[in-house]
Design goal:
The complex is a heterodimer of chains A (about 150) and B (about 230). Chain A has helices at about 1-20, 25-45, 45-55, 60-100, 115-120, 140-145. With about 150 residues, chain A is mainly alpha-helical. Chain A has a domain at about 1-100. In chain A, helix 2 (about 25-45) crosses helix 3 and helix 2 (about 25-45) runs antiparallel to helix 4 (about 60-100). The radius of gyration of chain A is 31 Å and the shape is elongated. Chain B has a seven-stranded mixed sheet, with helices on both faces. Chain B has nine helices and seven strands, in the order E-H-E-H-E-H-E-H-E-H-E-H-H-E-H-H. Chain B has a single domain, classed as Spore Coat Polysaccharide Biosynthesis Protein SpsA, Chain A, CATH 3.90.550. By secondary structure, chain B is an alpha/beta fold. The chains are: A mainly alpha (about 150), B alpha/beta (about 230).
């Protein structure tokens, strides 16, 4: 009886956690609920575990509970992986913000150059007219590039 | 006379440890007259320094995030600069700047928002057999999951209008971004067109390219992306 109460409390915590995770990942919530409810069932009706185990070809009820536990562990791993992805996405946004704030961009390059673009479509090559990020382009003087 | 209405074309070049190829690639793009933004994705070689002497703009990720993240950063930056069209272009030397006008022309002629390069629409090319099989599998996967009728689903050379770029919601940081981008095109409902382009396979570009194991990771990334918000 003591073990049943303790296990039920633990499974109850899993259910609460699953409910709290619904907005983040419905699939994790559903999987967690399914395996937790299975856990409740086998904890309070252990004799059924053996019958179910025999029915699905496992043999012993204890083995079935072990497999269910393994499933719970896999769901937890999946949830951790998804959380890591979320964290990584936040890291990406942060890194992108830093990168964009520190972009090396010559002021003149902001203005588009229709004449240069038209030369491209005509198959000509032309020397860009904007200033370089770190100095003039090859073949240009600093004055020419400004 | 130019034959398209685009006045501001930005070429987005994600780069990670590309010091041996980036000078040639950026030089050719600049000579062709494009605005070039290089996104240095946390390189540990001289990529950033080399790019900063050639490109219109250089953006440096403080850490390596992946090609998908670099493309997204470049697209955001180009949109900020008022780009009419954004071209994505690999920096390992496999693409040709001479294919870009064809992509732009295809956007106008087809009133499309996405012009996607296809190596399989151009003349037969010598490609490693394993790569051909993997790309064929990727194409089948894309057709099955997005409904897009494409011949080449992992080609890094694309031209995207401003409207098209604004419609994309890209979250995949690494190689799965190519499949995600196609899924986003399908979701947007905007028009797309495939354009024949030439891929120059070199020992260097093959070494930098995707491996068999990458496709497994791409599938796992796409699956994980579906499971969380």
């Amino acid at each position: 009886m003591i073990a049943q109460v303790v296990l039920s409390l633990l499974l109850g915590i899993v259910l609460l956690y699953a409910w709290a995770q619904y907005r983040r990942s419905p699939i994790v919530t559903i999987l967690s609920c399914v395996v937790s409810l299975m856990g409740f069932y086998f904890v309070w009706l252990p004799s059924h575990a053996t019958r179910v185990a025999e029915f699905v070809g496992i043999g012993r009820g204890a083995d079935l509970v072990l497999y269910v536990w393994a499933c719970i562990s896999l769901v937890v791993l999946l949830n951790l992986h998804l959380k890591l992805r979320t964290q990584h996405e936040l890291l990406t946004q942060l890194a992108r913000s830093i990168a964009l704030a520190n972009a090396t961009l010559p002021d003149e390059a902001r203005a588009s150059e229709p004449s240069r673009i038209s030369a491209v479509t005509e198959g000509k090559t032309s020397q860009p007219q904007y200033r370089l990020a770190d100095g003039p382009r090859p073949g240009q003087t600093a004055d020419q590039s400004a | 006379m130019r034959n398209h209405p685009f006045s501001s074309i930005w070429v987005v070049c994600p780069a990670y440890n590309e010091s041996s190829a980036i000078v040639s690639v950026i030089t050719r793009l600049c000579q062709a007259g494009y605005h070039v933004v290089v996104i240095d994705d946390g390189s540990i070689d001289d990529t950033r320094q080399l790019a900063s002497t050639l490109a219109t703009a250089v953006i440096s990720h403080p850490v390596n995030l992946g090609q998908g993240a670099a493309l997204k950063t470049g697209i955001d930056f180009a949109l900020e600069q008022g780009a009419d069209v954004i071209v994505t272009f690999d920096t390992d030397g496999q693409h040709r700047p001479s294919d870009i006008p064809r992509l732009l022309d295809a956007l106008v002629r087809n009133q499309a928002d996405f012009a996607l390069g296809s190596r399989f629409l151009s003349e037969p090319l010598s490609m490693p057999r394993m790569r051909r099989i993997l790309l064929w599998g990727a194409t089948l996967f894309t057709v099955a999951t997005t409904g897009l009728r494409l011949t080449d689903t992992h080609n890094g050379l694309r031209a995207i209008t401003r409207r098209g770029a604004q419609a994309l919601r890209l979250r995949q940081n690494r190689m799965a971004h190519a499949s995600e981008l196609l899924a986003e095109i399908a979701r947007s409902g905007l028009r797309y067109v495939e354009v024949p382009v030439t891929i120059d396979y070199t020992t260097y570009s093959l070494a930098k390219g995707q491996r068999t194991g990458d496709f497994v990771m791409i599938l796992l990334d796409l699956l994980a992306g579906k499971l969380y918000r």
